[in-house]
Amino acid sequence: MNVVTLSQLQFAATCMFHWIFVPxxxxxxxxxxxxxxxxxxxxxxxxxxMTKFWGKLFxxxxxxxxxxxxTMEFQFGMNWSEYARYVGDxxxxxxxxxxTLAFFLESVFIGVWIFGWNKISKKAHLASIWLAAIATxxxxxxxxxxxxxxxxxxxxxIRNNRAEMDDFLAVLTNPYGWIKFGxxxxxxxxxxxxxxxxxxxxxxxxxxxxxxxxxxxxxxATWAFVSSLxxxxxxxxxxxxxxxTQPAKFAAMEAQWETQRGVGxxxxxxxxxxxxxxxxxxxxxxxxxxxxxxxxxxxxxKGLKDFPKxxxxxxxxxxxxxxxxxxxxxxxxxASLLGMILIRKQNFEQYRWFLTIMVFAIPAPYLAQQFGWxxxxxxxxxxxxxxxxxxxxxxxxxxxATQVALSxxxxxxxxxxxxxxxxxxxxxxxxKGPDKDLSAIVNVEGRG
Length: 448
What we know:
Layout: H1 3-42, H2 45-78, H3 81-115, H4 122-151, E1 156-159, E2 162-165, H5 168-172, H6 175-205, H7 210-245, H8 247-253, E3 260-261, E4 265-266, E5 284-285, H9 288-294, E6 300-301, H10 315-342, H11 352-360, H12 363-378, E7 383-385, E8 389-390, H13 401-432, H14 439-445
Antiparallel strand pairs: 1-2, 3-6, 4-5, 7-8
């Protein structure tokens, strides 16, 4: 493999591994803050125990996410120096803001939350976790706005053979980025809720702390259902934006080769990109694709054949990733809705079949998000900045394939070790269950 392909594999591996931690951090930060809010409002010690238990899993996940995020940024100087040179004036600004503002705030207030249990009042301590959660979500917004500029570049001019920013407000208000932020944020909330439901189901199957985990499950099921519906809604908005700004990606998502009007949506069909035929057999919803793209059942969808071959994204992985993402998302809506219904029954613990499903469903939102990112990034190819800079032109000129292969091996080993550590710690403390003796914290926190 050449330098470009190896560099793509390395960045894809580090990004996808980093993203294992990000959505759980986004979701658990808010849910932990909400649990502590309920404790402060009601004085119910069960909410305090929930805050401590789920907050511990949040902290483990946050620590590993920080490490993987920092190493990921190194690659802009290692493998993608031409990209940094060409668009660094634009792409570097959001990264600098994220590091100096959002990351600084979340790190400071998470520290206050960790060490402030015996030092400050209930309300001040509660404020620290909310500020940390808000900063975490702001961090995600800034990074996604940076990524959105790569997907839909705005507010720039080409000067001196490089892209230079001429409208920072346009970059900040990029509609592609805000829709992507809503879609990503809600998917993180849904993922965290499914983790809580899965861990709670594991304990309920063993009749361990039933009241504690039934309350956790009930909260998470509601959160998961609302968030999953939100993911579907923002996903629809996002598809419209993709059809407008990245028609080649949209065509690849549906394996649409011919430019046509009133195009249907194929649900259960494997595309045949080698023969360049539209997928017309199998389950097809008439006019659905045209309506999804432009809210007009007779609108025109531009086919892949209208783009030069060298500018077409890889069709099969984009097509399949999109359907797997949507399929898993549909399962999440159904499972969370069923959870909301069943948890209201007094004999909820007896639905062992459902609890077993929820334990095994923990990886589902992780897979959905990974497939979603594959659609976003594979569908953009061969562009690293859509319509502005090709991926092949962005790689560092001074590195060799051997150097990239060795660094890829090194990152794989490092991230493999970190992954084992993370899974071990999360499983260990998830199985251990909540602390039973919180008297010291309650006494100190009782000062108000």
